[in-house]
Structures are given as C-alpha cells and as structure tokens.
Amino acid sequence: MGSAMAFGRSAALGFALAGFSALASAQPPDVAAVVDKAADYVAGYTRDFVGIVAEETYRQEVKSPPQTDARGLAQDGPRQKRDLKSDVLLVRAPAGDRWMQFRDVFEVDGKPVRDREERLAKLFLTPASGQRQVEAITTESARYNIGDVARTVNLPTLALAVLEPDNRPFFAFAGRRKKEGWELEYREERGNTMIRTSAGQSMPARGKILVDGNDGRILATELAVDEESVRAQIDVTYGLEPSVGLLMPREMREKYVTRRGTTIEGRASYAKFRRYQVTVDQTIKK
Fold first, then answer.
1. Helix, strand, coil shares of the chain as percentages rounded to 5?
2. Which long-range CB contacts under 8 A does 218-225 form with residues at least 24 apart?
3. Pairing of strands 99-108, 111-112
4. Cα separation of 128 and 141, whole Å?
5. N or C: which end of the chain has fewer CB within 10 A?
C-alpha cells in the first residue's frame, strides 16, 4: 500500500514504491515475535481489504501564522477549511504486485464533483505506463487537499507499509507490553527512505504501532516524519466493522507544521463499509 512524498516551493509529502537491499536489525525475541505476527497480519489484511470501500468524511483546516495589523497589533492569520466526502479503497498498482490506497472524492464543501466519472475513466481505462499511472492515482487522491503542504501521505493505511516485506528489513523495532496490547516503536534506518521530498531528500519515518499480541491485529498507528521545512504526524485508530468482519480504520488525525508557522490539521472518519464488485458491460455491434 503506498503513494509518494515531495517538497517543492511548497512542501509536498509522498510515499515511494521502491525496493532496496535489506539491513538487519536485531530485536529481543518477544518483540521480534510480535513484529512477525503483525507483519503476517498486514499481509493477510491487504488481501482481505481488497474489495472493500469505505465512505470518508474528511475536514481539513489551515491556520496561517499570526500577523501584525497597521497599528502594530498582533492578530490571527487567515484560516481556510475544506470538507470532503470520498470513497476510499485499495486498487492494484499497474505492475500487479502491489496495492495502493485511492481516495475517490465525490463531494467538496457540500457540492458534487462534476467531472468525477470522466476523470475515473481516464485514470483507470486510458493506457499508460505503470509508473505514470501510479503517479496519476497518487495525484488524484490528493487533488482536493488544501494548504501549502502538497501531500500524498494522508491515507489511513499508510503506516501499515512499515510491516510490508519490501520495507520491514529497514526498520528497527522496540516494544513494550501495555494494557491494550503491544506498543511497537519503529524507526527507519536507510538512506533512500520510503517517504521523500519532491527533490528526493530522504525523510526517515518513525512512530508507534499498537498490536494485539495474540494474533498481530493492528489496533492503532502513528507515523511521523520531519525535515527543516515541515513536521508531520498521522494517527489512525481501528475498530471492528461487523459488516465486513475486519478491523477497519475508524479515524485519522493529521497535523503538519511548516517552517513559516502554518499549521494544517485534518480529521477523517470512516463509515458505510461495503464490498464492491467491478462489472463490465459489453455491447455487440451487428
């Protein structure tokens, strides 16, 4: 599951779909066992998640730094907010061996997105190279974000990528038992990180994953990255969804603070989980 991180004149965050040679990180046996269970769970979860779509209700707010008026008095900076409604689902990356999460926005500030069907048809039905289509899906998912951080990491299952086979060897894990389960702390240890700026600058990921030590189920995630332009953190909680029989994202909270003092915050909730099917209508011309 993934996207791509970039920083230009305005900050931009994205997730890189790339593979690198492994680094070994030793962990105590009990922590290693929990990491193994969690990684196995993520592998199965990705397969089970396919075919499930959730409706996302997502508010983003931007707070600019304080300003000084003509009298020299401090006042609050401009604010902006946006409400999005979207369907969120997993789609197969063009190479066929990876899944990436896609946000299909259908309503912005209470108004329907007019060109939605045309854009979706172009996105998934128009022939394109694998990398070009990955970039197009990633860009489309972030199309309606606001603020001066052009980010593509604001997807609820992103932190699960830490435990995927291509990424896990490059992370060091520590852990401790808590009442709710095992709290795994992770830290990325490689040069070409999975999250990078648009200029290719590495941004090592760190954070926490709350795991049910009995079966490896993921209960909550925290992912953080930073560099001199921006600090970012995304927190996600999961809950059992009886309609699909899986733990599903329930809430995502995100916060970005830029060097200029701008703060971007987002809160998304997930409901109306259902399984979808793709059907193809064929018409035979005589």
1. 20, 40, 40
2. 218/38, 218/41, 218/42, 218/45, 218/160, 218/247, 219/180, 219/181, 219/247, 221/159, 221/160, 222/159, 223/153, 223/158, 223/159, 223/162, 225/5, 225/13, 225/195
3. antiparallel
4. 18
5. C
What count of other Cβ atoms lies within 10 Å of the Cβ of residue 191?
9
Type of residue numbered 225: V
Question: How far apart are alpha carbons 196 and 194 in whole angstroms?
Answer: 6
**Predicted confidence (pLDDT) per residue in 148-193, tens digit:** 888 888 999 999 999 999 899 999 999 999 998 999 999 999 988 9
Closest CA to 181 of 224, 215, 222: 215
The pTM of the full predicted model, rounded to 2 decimals, is 0.83
Domain chopping of the chain, boundaries: 14-275
* Token pair for 72: 């020299």
